[in-house]
Structure formats: C-alpha cells, structure tokens
Amino acid sequence: MGEFIRDRLPDPADYFEGQGLVLIGRGKWRTARCDFHGGSDSLRINTESGGWCCMACGAHGGDVLAFHMQARGLEFVEAARELGAYVEGNKPHRSPAKPAGLSPRMALEVLAFEALTVAVAAGNLAQGVALTDNDRQRLTLAAGRINLLAEGVLLCA
Ligand SMILES: [Zn+2]
Prior knowledge:
Bound molecules: zinc ion
Strand content: 15-25%
Oligomer: single chain
CATH superfamily of the largest domain: Zinc finger, CHC2-typedomain
Helix content: 40-55%
Order of helices and strands: EHEEEEHHEHH
Number of domains: 2
C-alpha cells in the first residue's frame, strides 16, 4: 500500500506548461487550448488550485491530478505516481496473489468518468465534430473499463 501526498503535486502553472500548454493571460485564471476536444482557447486554468474547466466541451477537474488522470487515461494511483505525489509504503500486501478490487465508491467514480468521456464524444458528434482515431481508442478503452467493472462486480457478488 502506498500513500497519496497532495503537497507533492507539482505547481499548477509548471505542470500545465510542462504538458505543452501555453497559459495566456494574467492573474489567477489563465486560458489555454483544450486537448480534450481540440479547442484553441477554451480551457480555463486556476494557477493557484490547479482547477481547470473547458468552457466548450465541459471537461473539468479540481486539480492537476484530475487533469493528469483524464488527459492520460490513468487511474488515481498511476497518475499520482507519475506526478511524484504517491509514496510507496513498505507494508506487504495481505493477499499478494489476488489484486485488490475496487470499492463500490471507486467503481462508481470510474463509471462516472467514463460516462463523461462518452458524453463529451457524443456532444462533439452532435455538433458535427468528427471523432479522431485517438477519440475512438479512448472510447474503446472506456467500454473495456466498464466491461471490466461489470465482470468484477459479478465475480465479487
Ligand atoms: Zn474542451
């Protein structure tokens, strides 16, 4: 088991610029392009909290960790680890042969996130925006994850 340490998350401005985004404007809130739907200047970023929201496609999150998860398609721990905010503990797992299952709460959060991904894609389609190959792959991944969740729930029931 490891531990998430929020204080170790990178500085929001450093992080977003490190992702190749150009932060336009002054003050706490900056504007950048949105890679979630391909918009040029719709992403609003709070450089103090790391919160972000796209005014066009609705993609949003409360910190750089949420951005990293959604932009890279990572789970919480994977994303936290990549950002250097996850410290591995040295306690052995109690049952190393069996992967830990998702809690119902986490399963719901994954479902909610994947549902949002699908909703954004559907919204783009409705506006006549064609899906890119990346979008298709992301949607296939979303369907796969939901299937895995369904199987996991069946196995645990
Ligand atoms: Zn967007």
